[in-house]
Design a protein that fits this description.
Blueprint: E1 6-11, H1 19-32, E2 37-42, H2 44-47, H3 54-70, E3 79-82, H4 88-97, H5 102-106, H6 109-117, H7 124-139, E4 144-146, H8 152-169, E5 177-179, H9 214-223, H10 239-252, H11 256-263, H12 268-294, H13 297-326
Parallel strand pairs: 1-2, 2-3, 4-5
The chain binds tryptophanyl-5'AMP.
Amino acid sequence: MAQRPVILSGIQPSGKLTIGHYTGALRNWVALQDSHECYFMIADLHAITVRQEPEQLRQRTLDTAALYLACGIDPQQSVLFVQSHVPEHTQLTWVLACLTGMGECQRMTQFKEKSLQHRHNVNVGLFAYPILMAADILLYQADLVPVGADQKQHLELTRNLAERFNYYYGETFRIPEPYIPPLGAKIMSLQEPTKKMSKSDPNENAVLFLTDTPEDIQRKIRKAVTDSGREIRYEEQRPGIANLIVLYHVATGKSIPEIEAEFGSAGYATFKAALAEALIEFLRPIREEYLRLRAAEDHLHNLLAEGARRARERAAHTLQLVYERVGFLKAPVLEFSGAVVSNQRG
Ligand code: TYM
């Protein structure tokens, strides 16, 4: 069989996943998994650039794995793994960091935004975050990276670093392309439709979570901020209604012209009622499947262990090549005594 092009992508387990994660990432992952060799990771190393409560991080890592599966990721076909289970990610990060200019990281919009949001914790990890993301992608020699619009700048840095490495050390990395969907690449807040929908928004009504109950969905859609006018028409200068139309498209598969023809001048209330109903029906099986899978923790741990093994196989191969190219002496094979080192006294 001809080799399929390779995909890598990931989501941080730093909160509950939103409909934005679905439209910008998961939906496209599922659509591409038949035709690509896919590596889907849970980006826990990225998550700790913002303070996380350890037990909560562990739980959310499992929540995220269960949601990947509930949304349709097939663990037989695609490799599903946790970023921190593959140490090559941090190892490659160091090598790439030594090729990255301070200015390149300083320019990143997400860094600027997050440093304002977390003024008391502007750490070096947050600064180096896009270098870790480049390492994630380049380790798997990914051809395509399906992400939402907010990650485009990080993809450009990744491509630059890959080209720079290849220039200094010889052809090593494939140059990855972003895959940003034509619709749904940036789902907006339901309360402030000029702002991206974000899982960390303090206003609960602004965010639609994939695991929301029918009552949550009803309430949030009813309260969603719309624009002046009453026509159901997709226009960029009317971000509130445009956002809701995209959500209706995602929930029903209908095209924008079909939606406009269906609702036209029916009014916001009628459209919102239909949207809430469509989202409830669309999210119901995802939520039910999520609850079922989340209850089977042993199964999740087993899948992630198998995923880590498959991911490492590919990652280790690339890292070995990189280490050779950079000029590191071949590492000796070490044998340990097997003694257990404990941090407990006595
Ligand atoms: P993260 O965890 O913020 O988001 C995960 C993915 O979901 C997309 N997304 C959205 N798309 C549309 N509308 C929204 N409102 C919305 N919110 C989130 C994001 O664009 C992203 O695709 N750095 C990454 C995680 C990461 C990664 C990687 C991605 C780490 N290493 C390697 C790809 C390849 C991040 O923080 O995404």
